[in-house]
Design brief:
- The chain is of the alpha/beta class.
- The protein is 53% helix and 10% strand.
- Helix 1 crosses helix 9 (296-328).
Length: 483
């Protein structure tokens, strides 16, 4: 082989070697890329599987949580108004879609002190609305019987009485277990068409019940039975009246003063109301999302959000009440500079004298209600409501103790006022008033019965009270041989 041929061969060999090296390099790179891709795919597959398993696990846990709370499967639940929305609506925080930014829900009333703004709320499921008199009911008043088989029950008192009335109408419309079903177990009411009418509202206290009864009878309202549930507001809210030097028998200063201040142009009250209104709107949006959840996990997550907003909402309401109390001490409320006249006492009474005066007014008001109704052959039953601030033998679980705030503004009134109130029961019974002391009816119940730090009951507590009242009605009707 010549030198020239050898050089040509060497050059060709180098080219082939170079090309082959490039091809091998490319091949190796492809192999590495393929392994990388396969590795990434493997990681993604494992991550996806873990995410799916985690989701399934969380969904199972959420299903178990929902079942423990509601005693039914999430996927088979009926589409009903959420318990949070229902409870807030019953206690004054109207969250319906037709509210349109309304935030001042109450209006001054010439006879009753204050009422809800007529037409501000309607619940489609049950037909409950704020009627022509600013009271929650299916009907405008006076309600006139359309047939003799109708049995009309009027319920008077504060928010606890209002809860019972609204619950009764709602459960009756939904054909659920509740007060009307318990009443149907009373033999003499078994075949009656029971009509529940609410004359109760948050903060009402005697003599508001007496005044309302007298007024509605005067305009032709018919009753077969009147139920009065009270006691708490009389002592808790009248104590606030006394602290502000306002006549004890006047409507709750806590409720009437904000309206008075608005009537007098106090903008600080409006600012606080706007803040509460914004929270209310956020809460409404969150509840809408909660009610639209298709998965239990979604429901659990949204429930936590709603709970947080509810806690904030209630905190702001407490701050609002405190602000009203502070403002009231800075202004004259004796009518000299106000569009609304409120009787100013000459001095703040000592607690003993104040509670004696409050309970004496309570005694006379209930007695007068009984006498007015007895003259018309209408049955009257009076119930003193249970409350967590009046000590009984009930043992509270750690979960329920959160609803007992030792320095709550209502606690003093209840602890000092309830014993005086209860001391007058025998006088009412001697005067032939059907009065029942329910303060111990929760003592044997191990489950939580309260739903807030004020005075309101959850559905378990509500059922206990409803059954007690229904049984009491049966006892009285049997004794009186009422047809």
């Amino acid at each position: 082989m010549s030198l020239l041929q050898f050089k040509l061969f060497f050059i060709g060999y180098q080219k082939i070697k170079s090309q082959l090296g490039k091809k091998i390099g490319k091949a190796m790179k492809k192999i590495k890329n393929l392994k990388l891709i396969q590795g990434i795919k493997t990681v993604l597959s494992l991550a996806s599987i873990n995410l799916i398993l985690a989701f399934i696990g969380l969904e199972v846990v959420s299903l178990a949580f929902y079942y423990s709370q509601e005693k039914q499967l999430f996927y088979t639940k009926k589409k009903t108004i959420s318990q949070v929305r229902e409870e807030l609506e019953k206690t004054g925080a109207r969250l319906g879609k037709d509210i349109n930014d309304e935030s001042i829900l109450e209006r001054l009333h010439p006879f009753f002190g204050y009422v809800l703004k007529p037409g501000i709320f309607t619940q489609e499921e049950s037909g409950i609305k704020v009627n022509n008199y600013g009271l929650l009911s299916k009907y405008d008043y006076p309600f006139i019987k359309s047939n003799r088989n109708q049995f009309v029950i009027g319920i008077f008192g504060g928010s606890v009485a209002g809860d019972l009335a609204v619950n009764s109408v709602f459960n009756q419309a939904m054909e659920n277990e509740g007060f009307v079903k318990y009443l149907k177990q009373v033999p003499k009411l078994k075949n009656k068409e029971i009509i529940i009418l609410s004359f109760a509202s948050g903060g009402y206290k005697q003599p508001q019940q007496l005044l309302m009864l007298s007024y509605f009878i005067s305009i032709g309202q018919e009753f077969d039975l009147v139920i009065n549930i009270d006691g708490f507001n009389e002592v808790a809210l009248s104590h606030h009246n006394n602290q502000q030097g306002i006549e004890l028998s006047f409507p709750s200063i806590q409720h009437i003063l904000p309206l008075t201040q608005l009537a007098n142009g106090d903008l600080s009250v409006m600012v606080a109301i706007v803040k509460i209104s914004e929270l209310k709107n956020n809460l409404s949006t969150s509840i809408n999302k909660l009610e639209s959840c298709k998965l239990a996990l979604c429901y659990s997550w949204r429930s936590l959000q709603v709970k947080g907003l509810v806690d904030r909402y209630q905190t702001e309401l407490i701050k609002y009440d405190e602000q009203i109390a502070r403002n009231s001490s800075k202004i004259k409320i004796d009518g000299s500079n106000s569009l609304v006249y409120l009787n100013k006492m000459s001095e703040v009474l000592e607690d003993k004298a104040a509670f004696e005066k409050v309970t004496e007014n309570w005694y006379k008001s209930s007695l007068t209600m009984s006498q007015i109704l007895a003259q018309r052959d209408i049955l009257y039953l009076h119930f003193i409501q249970p409350n967590q601030y009046y000590s009984t033998e009930r043992v509270y679980s750690p979960e329920e103790k959160i609803f007992i705030i030792e320095d709550h503004s209502y606690a003093v009134g209840v602890r000092k006022g309830y014993p005086v109130l209860l001391s007058k029961i025998n006088r009412l019974r001697e005067a032939k008033v059907n009065i029942f002391n329910t303060v111990k009816i929760f003592d044997g119940e191990k489950e939580i019965v309260y739903r807030d730090a004020c005075c309101h009951y959850n559905m378990i507590g509500q059922r206990i009270l409803e059954k007690y009242i229904a049984n009491s009605i049966k006892t009285i009707m049997d004794k009186k041989d009422i047809n």
